[in-house]
Amino acid sequence: QVQFEESGGGLVQAGGSLTLSCVVSGSMYAFYHMGWYRQAPGHKRELVASMTASGDRNYSDSVWGRFAISREDDKNTVHLLMTALKPEDTAVYFCYVDEARGLDYLVPHWGQGTQVTVSS
């Protein structure tokens, strides 16, 4: 069973920074994508940032240039550095991985989420 340990969420003023970290355990497979989704009240869950095992990064337009994703595969850990935070970044942030179980066979998993609140 894949388990997640998410940390780093909290309350910060607009313009501030936070770093989210997520340690993933319990999987026997490598992770092709590691990343973060978020969901604000009344909104759908959306992809914030992801990173492939080969180092390709993908960001949503709303966070491009402000957030930076990194991963440490030897520790099954993914980080999200969030800078220049805005009130609209307020959401529950979910760590995400997909297990590479075979050719073109990826199995997604999400953590339980950590709250990020940005005050104006």
Explain the overall architecture.
With 120 residues, this protein is mainly β. It has strands at residues 3-7, 10-13, 18-25, 31-39, 46-52, 57-59, 67-72, 77-82, 91-102, 105-110, 114-119. The chain is elongated, with a radius of gyration of 14 Å. The termini are far apart.
Keywords:
mainly beta; seven-stranded mixed β-sheet; four-stranded antiparallel β-sheet; 120 residues
Instruction: Output the radius of gyration.
Output: 14 Å
The percentage of residues in β strands lies in: over 45%
What's the β-strand tally? 11
Provide mean pLDDT, rounded.
96
Give start-end ranges of low-pLDDT stretches: none
Q: Helix and strand layout, with pairings?
A:
Elements: E1 3-7, E2 10-13, E3 18-25, E4 31-39, E5 46-52, E6 57-59, E7 67-72, E8 77-82, E9 91-102, E10 105-110, E11 114-119
Summarize the structure.
The chain has no helices and eleven strands. By secondary structure, the chain is mainly beta.
